Amino acid sequence: MVDQDSAENGEEKGDVVIRRAREEDIPYVMEVNVRSLPENYWYGFYKYILERWPEAFLVAEVKGRIVGYAMSRVETVADPVLRGLQSELEGGMEAIKARLSRLLQPLHIKTADVGRVGHLVSIAVLEEYRGRGIGSRLLGETIRVMKEVYNVESIYLEVRVSNLVAMRLYEKYGFVKVRRIRGYYMDGEDAYVMVLRLKPLPVDA
Ligand SMILES: CC(C)(COP(=O)(O)OP(=O)(O)OC[C@H]1O[C@@H](n2cnc3c(N)ncnc32)[C@H](O)[C@@H]1OP(=O)(O)O)[C@@H](O)C(=O)NCCC(=O)NCCS
Fold first, then answer.
1. Topology of 4-197 in CATH?
2. 100 falls in which pLDDT band (50, 70, 90)?
3. pTM, whole model, 2 decimals?
4. If you measure from the C-alpha of residue 80 to the centroid of ligand 1, how many angstroms do you get, rounded to a whole number?
């Protein structure tokens, strides 16, 4: 676990440093994004996320070069699927319950109408740096920050149904497929919504 001070300064392992993004990193983050994904965003979008949820925007740096990033935001939602309280896909809820029962007992409270959830908006690592655990460390640190700093009840994300590498990474951290969105991407591909429930399930869920 990384304490506040070392998270601020970056968590080092070998020559890869995972640290909070700074505004001057944004052009390099945009370059990693454009080289890695068809979903690209304008500068102001990155800047807004960084200003609003500064701890949830992480970069991976190797010898001073930005080689990866993970960018998340916090949302208040009523959708029980995004909160990890319901699944639209077979086996989704059973998988969430099986994972939680090992960690957390159900809470004897009634489900609130809305909940605070984390949304992993985008994560990427430059191709030549993949397969070295950088994506895993970015995701692991994102989960820690979402839990400890932003106190969310779940984290969700969208992933292309063909992106097996990313799905395997998310599943490794306990994310479960809970919804399929037809034609979610610009080219018409479907997305899976995957959720990691971080808090106990209310007994009525
Ligand atoms: C998904 C992504 C961020 C993973 O980054 P990474 O630094 O390679 O991740 P890791 O090295 O931690 O590997 C994570 C898992 O990916 C899988 N993986 C990594 N490299 C792989 C490869 N060359 N071939 C197949 N699977 C691979 C493995 O399952 C690995 O977990 P394991 O080593 O514990 O088995 C990276 O592949 C990427 O940037 N892809 C393009 C952008 C993208 O698809 N983003 C996600 C959008 S939803």
1. Aminopeptidase (3.40.630)
2. confident
3. 0.91
4. 28
